[in-house]
Amino acid sequence: MLSWLLQRLSAIALLVMLFLHVTLSHFPPRDIDFDNVLTRLQYPGWKVFYIAFLAIVLYHALNGVWQVASDWSAVQRARRIVLGVTWIVGLIFLYLGAETIWRFDLVALMAK
Ligand code: HEM
Is 51 touching ligand 1 by the criterion CB < 6 Å? Predict the structure, then answer.
């Protein structure tokens, strides 16, 4: 029940965040290019926004796959293992993405 509710709430959050992302970064005068991304990611607020966006889409996608897969009796039998693996995969991708977003800034790029 909770995961059913969170699937809907995460879908609403994704709609709002996707709208903000597309309107604020894909339309003139903010044509999407490397400078645009670099400028935006100088602001910690945008980093937090994108990390939250990533966390929510990962939750939504993996929870959705989990809900579909859990109709399958083989998955039901290994419920805890499949759920555990799903969480580990999600957390690894969240770590990789969040680490990349958080470290992506001008100072770090110029130091290379
Ligand atoms: C703005 C973006 C999105 C919105 C508004 C949205 C909306 C929804 C909604 C309302 C559901 C529940 C459907 C139902 O149970 O009848 C759902 C399920 C699901 N979503 Fe999304 N979604 C979005 C993006 C994504 C993305 C990017 C992925 C995968 C990368 C994804 C994967 C899934 C999966 C696997 C399910 C489960 C399908 C099922 O229960 O049959 N969604 N989504």
Answer: no
